[in-house]
Amino acid sequence: MAWLARRALLLLAIGGAQFAAFEGALRTWGHSEAAPSFQALFVPDAQIGYRLRPNARTRFVTSEFDAHIAINAQGVRDDRDIGPRPSNERRIVVLGDSLVLSVQVDRQQTFCSLLEARLNRDGGRYTYRVINAGVQGYGPVEELLFFREIARQFQPDLVIEAIFVGNDAEEAVASAPRLGRAGAATAAVMTSETLITRLRRIVRHSMVLQVLRLRIVSLVDRLPTWTAPPEAPLQSYAAKPAPRIADGLRISRDCIESIANDAANTGARTMVMLVPARFQVDAADYDRLKAAVAQAGGELVRDAATERFNAALADLPLPRLDVLPALRAAAPAGDVFFQQTVHLTPRGHEVVADAMERFIREKGLASGL
Amino acid sequence: MVFNSLQFVWFFLVVYALYRVLPHRGQNWLLLTASYYFYAAWDYRFLGLLVASTLVDYTCGLALGAIQVQRRRRAVMWVSIGFNVTLLGFFKYFNFFADNLHVVFGALGWRLDFVTVRVLLPVGISFYTFVTMSYVIDVYRRDIAPTRNLLDFAVFVAYFPHLVAGPILRATTLLPQIATPRRVTGPQIREGLWLIAWGFFQKIFVADNLAPLASRVFAPGAHETGINVLLGTYAFAFQIYGDFAGYSNIARGTSKLMGIELIENFRFPYLVLTPQEFWRHWHISLSTWLRDYLYIPLGGNRGPKWKTQRNLLITMLLGGLWHGAAWTFILWGLYQGLLLMLYRPFESAFAALRHRKGSQGATGAAFAETQRYRRFHLRASRFGGQVDAAGSAFAACIMFHLTCFGWLIFRAPSLRGLGVLSRSVFTHFAPATVDVTGLLVPLLLYSVPLLIVHALEARADDVLVVPRMPVVIRYTVYVATMYLIFLFGNFGGSEFIYFQF
Q1: Which of B166, B182, B198 is the last residue of a domain?
Q2: Min CA distance, B400 vs chain A (Å)?
Q3: Percentage, residues of chain A above pLDDT 90
Q4: Region A147-159: what's the mean pLDDT?
Q5: What is the mean pLDDT of residues B120-135?
Q6: B8 to chain A: nearest residue by CA?
Q7: ∠ CA(A217), CA(A220), CA(A221), 5° rounding?
Q8: CB-based contact (8 Å) between A22 and chain B?
Q9: CATH number for the domain whose boundaries are A21-220+241-276+308-362
Q10: Is A212 part of the contact surface with chain B (CB cutoff 8 Å)?
Q11: Is B479's CB within 8 Å of A18's CB?
Q12: CB contact under 8 A, A7 and B471
């Protein structure tokens, strides 16, 4: 027993020493979303799960980009606070996920800021303010909850719901239970989450623990498929998708309808913007993924997710912009997506901002603001 | 069901729990059932082929044991070889030959519509057909007695750890272990667990993290400068090694846990000095198979020099074709054959030099000399300083780059793509364009830990040196391996490269 105890102690000591070494190395060189400085951008939220921490600041650096991120007092990515709307200001709120938040580029390079600059370019009766209300990891369910809890107070004139067709249907299914919880009293939830919140706080302070947490989450997610053959990836694009994709599309549609109804109640209009995945634009990426999916026994249909969202939203009387054609047309002249993440490059943001401005003007959404 | 999947973990835990409580015959029945389930998890339709191959070669083995007339015995052996080669030829090479016939006849203006059927490749067919062929040839040569126990033979063929990607086992090694009761020892468990962990490290940390680097450089239509093609080729060299050696180690590790010893398939192949040494350290089970059942029957190095060279070339050409039905694999085999042919004159000169200086052994006995030879290039001083450490390092570096050029051929998307990549390396190297953050840093990050353990193993001339090290070093390596897997591993669950062969 003493031998065993000595060995266990030795193992613990070596494990501890290496933990410190890896923690130090990751803090010094491991710029990633698991970094405590990046994780500090988020704060738990009883209704939505989490949201951006008001007044948080960080710098996000990887081999591909180096960006400053500032969150304002209202909890959206902006250097300026958002107060009551002046009478000569018209506001556009863009709801979405990481493709809207865009931590890979500086604020002035995001399509929200670029759109604002374009709309204000010619001067005029009103000044336009475009509010970036994107949050990393959100899907249509969280976006609806975020709109109700926070973004509605910004008094928007136009709400743009940015749908990432690549995973929003899947995320809508995963987050659907939150819709039921949103209306309930939150006190019980807050109490039960106290211990978890404490644990999360500890984990958030360590990069090693952050990564290990992500591994465990991923493992738990895969538990139901232990005995079944692994499902081919990218189900939103599968020729024969899993039944949950249809559910996800329906939930997404309902969430968008709810956002539109809530917005209409405050006099705002709503439009939908469909954002494609990188491989829908990048042919080499598509070939690689198509082969990988085929190897896993599936069939990848390049624009299936876009077409499915278009079909699912067809009965909603909302203007709908698909930025895929614009990005595809721009791709041959240079990267519109980063290579190591699936997010837009500064050039990609320019292309999207151009497409949005054109669409808003064509549909009269700007003049009617 | 790949080794790096939760499905396999679950499968193995259940099998192993049952294995440890069953008696010997029960264990064999369990192994057979588990192996067929494992294979059917890939594609149950091809299970019939595996069973057919087992029954044909089992019957041929029995016939060889019963027949005494040499002519008839040879006929039986050819029945087995013919059956297996037909299986392999149809399922693995039909599409290749049909496509090439289309091209040739299309150029002449003829259409060949009868060869448009698409044939699927059954996973592992290259491995189990070689396993069963070697059994029949060994029985024919009277190296082993045929087994009368169909269960033992079926387990030998289908044994799940080696079924889909080797090592290519010999009946002489595995059948006796299946036929007799097995005992699992403490050191076997320790070594087995280490081999499994190290195999996962090689696959998840090394191979799967380097795969995107290689894919980027070798993507059809990619136009990288020479320096970046070189880095991408290094990445592929470590990827394919990590992938294949990782599979072999997991296969060996799981077998050790069941008290079964499989042969080593890799011994630090990137630290060798010569092409001949490379093939004694890389995919050892295939190279020894080709040596014993192809090169030596062709005449080996008996007879005139030109015949030896011819035999080398044929063996390596077929070795290349074994890897897959593509011109790049054939060209790779040809390249390896040429390397071995070109090396032979230097081998004699090198051996004479060593002999003159009083070193033990001679070139011709190189196989027997392998152990000493390994130490030679790593501890040159032991050999009286005939070749100093710097010289050895230089030779190893040259050999590594010759190997990498082989991988460039192997991984090129097509012959045209190979031309583009080669031109980049030789005419547009442009060192200033090196992609430090996208290629160099990840390459170093994911290959250096592997090379450190590689060097430890080579220094001790023992691929199981880690579990035999002092406890503090051992635990340090264990813990670091686990941290690296969990912190930086790629858990995408991708398939092993050699499954496609």
Answers
A1: B182
A2: 28
A3: 53
A4: 94
A5: 82
A6: A226
A7: 85
A8: yes
A9: 3.40.50.1110
A10: yes
A11: yes
A12: yes
Domain with B425, as residue range(s), is: 188-500
- The residue of A4, A29, A63, A342 whose CB has the most chain B CBs within 10 angstroms, and thus the best one to mutate to test that interface, is A63
Contacts of B435 in chain A (CB under 8 A): none
Asked if the structure places residue B6 within a domain, the reply is no
Tell me if B3 is assigned to some domain: no
Query: What mean pLDDT is reported for chain A?
Result: 86
**Distance (Å) of CA B382 to CA A340, B361, B372, B375, B461:** 48, 14, 10, 8, 14
Interchain pair B219, A208: CB under 8 A: no
Chain B: nearest CA to A190, how far in angstroms? 31
Predicted pLDDT at B352: 52
Say how many C-beta atoms besides its own lie within 10 A of residue B36's C-beta: 18
Query: Complex ipTM, two decimals?
Result: 0.72
Catalytically annotated residues of B: 323
pLDDT above 60: residue A122: yes
Q: Where are the domains of chain A?
A: 21-220+241-276+308-362
By C-alpha distance, the chain A residue nearest B436 is: A63
Domain boundary among B182, B199, B233: B182
Tell me the pLDDT tens digit for each residue of B195-234.
Answer: 999 999 999 999 988 988 888 888 777 788 899 999 999 9
CA distance, residue A227 to nearest chain B CA (Å): 6
- Which residue has 């706080």 as its token pair? A201
Confidence of residue A230 (pLDDT cuts 50, 70, 90): low
From the list B7, B41, B475, the residue facing A226 with the nearest CB is B7
Contacts of A40 (CB under 8 A, 6+ apart): A53, A56, A58, A204
pLDDT per position as a tens digit, A76-87: 999 889 999 998
In chain B, what residues touch A219 (CB-CB under 8 Å)? 6
